[in-house]
Amino acid sequence: MTPDVATNKREQMLRDGFCVIEGILSDAFLEQLIDQSEDLIASHVPPPDVRYQGQHVVVEGKDNRIIQEMLDWAPARQSLKQMGFDDFASHGNVIILTKDPGEPALYWHQDWMQWNDPSSCTPWPQVIFLSYYLQDTTVENGCLKVIPGTHLKRIPLHDQLVPAHEQGARFVADDHPVMFSNHPDQVDVKVKAGSLVLADARVLHAAHKNLTDHRRTLILAWHRRPDTIPPYWKGLVPEVLTDRDEGAEYAGSRIPGTFLE
Fold first, then answer.
1. Inter-CA distances, 189 with 141, 150, 237, Å
2. What's the pTM value of the predicted model, to 2 decimals?
3. What does the buried/exposed string (b/e) look like for 139-175 if buried means 16 or more CB atoms within 10 Å of the residue's CB?
């Protein structure tokens, strides 16, 4: 990326809560990841409570050379560095997520788990997910959809959703009128195979149903940065952050509270 492109990608992350970096994987490594993911899926029996996530195969990098190579993938690390995100560190594992032919949509949710913590108010991302797509994505085969800006601003949908994942959303009916709705502000994130999607854990996102005859696969890796002000940030720091008690323990919560205005 040129410096201008990197800055624009960072600004999109700050503003919208997501961005796309195209062509991050080489063709050869993309083929390795496809083969490896298919091998891992073949021996995996997904539990029924993750049917909206597809296969949901968790793989530790230390146990799999190819997955570790992806976590260390130099073009991705270089892109993060150019964007000022080089202080993000991987959790050390990935989740292989699929949409097989005919599989249902993924419900609306956000993945931030610290809504009682004032760090929920950071105007910069603290926790991000990196999604490496192994096939081209379209609305028809279950591409990601995002509502830009919802990592920083509450919309009515926030207060209509069943809490994410194991706290309720995994058990809703697949015709739930809110969880699987289309939103007028949503963006369908259609990408080419080998692309990387970065997203803030706080942003509302979902995925379409796969209406095609082919599997759609992504490999997702979580990354977190320290609880500090990033060097690139030159704007105002919210008072709730400057007053945050670093020694306090804040109960975890997936439900946006008063820190999401």
1. 12, 16, 30
2. 0.96
3. eebbbbbbbbebbbeeeebbeebbebbeeebbeeeee
* Residue in the block written with tokens 């913590």: 117
Q: What domains are there in the chain, each with its CATH number?
A: 3-225 (2.60.120.620)
Structure tokens at 122: 């950071």
Residues 187-220: pLDDT tens digits? 999 999 999 999 999 999 999 999 999 999 999 9
pLDDT (0 to 100) of residue 154: 98
Task: Compute the half-sphere exposure of residue 105: CA atoms within 13 Å on the CB side of its CA.
Answer: 25
Distance of CA 97 to the CA centre of its chain: 11
141-187 pLDDT, tens digit each: 999 999 999 999 999 999 999 988 777 889 999 999 999 999 999 99
CB 219 within 8 A of CB 70: yes
Tokens 């991302």 locate to: 125
Cα separation, 200 vs 38, in Å, equals 28
